[in-house]
Amino acid sequence: MSLGDRLALAGLIVAFLGIAVVYLWPAQKWIGYICLCFAVVLGVLWGLLEIRDRQRPTAAIIVPEAPPKSESKPGPQPEPRPTLPPPLNLHPQFKASSLFTAARKRKITIQINSFHRYLTGIGFKVSTEVPLIGVEPQNVPSFGIGADRLVKNDLSIAANRIDDPNAIVPLYALWVFHKMLPFEGYPDNPKSWFSWDAQLMFERYYTESFENDYHYMLPESDSAPLDKWNNALLDLRKKYGQDFVDRLLYYSLEDWYPAGPTQDLDGFLWTRFDAGLLAIDNKDENRSGVLAVMKARGIPPSK
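and the corresponding structure tokens:
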């Protein structure tokens, strides 16, 4: 309560007291008159104080602004971790050539490491050995390497495809499967070349699967053994998914053995394909569908 309010309250009390004395004790009226005069003085003082307070400027009251509500979730938030590139565990060596710049060497190294991780992720036990890499004249296709060149443990990229991001993968894939499927009894056993056909089939499928870029062979060439196998594998991938076919071929390679004396190429490939199917297909759940796809491509089951 301010001083003015207290004076006003005191003036009212004194005024009521003065009026009461005048009426209740007429003989003592003088006391009542004194109280009334004193009440008037207090009222004047109260009025002066009110006038002064009204003329005094009012200080602005600053209300602190409430901090904005945080939209983050309660509790400490972990800082985002930077995405690191996968490690390069394979370090291929390159032949001396002005075409092999540092940038090109790094790109080729990354591609070889990526394909190596893809195969080992399926289950293949791929050697950490890497062939020596060179460059061939411009008119040589990137995958045009004979078995004799593979035996020498080197690969050559066509000069006109040295900047193609997919040029090295088919070469490296063919080299990998050549190591896994050597020629049995070569050169005395003519059927040892079945292993070469198998290498080409594995290279083609896994290269296209890795790059997610699939190419059906032309219908008129579908009678060629590897063409129809390539098309059948792509049909299976469409129907059952990449993981199913990737692992089916992996398990077929796990149970690999030389060709029998009476087997042709289709029979040779089918026997190993069927071993992979028996391994991956639980309780023959998909067997009838797989056989139908293969038969539609001219690959009937072989004994």
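(Above: one complete record from the training split.) The first strand starts at residue 132 and ends at 136.
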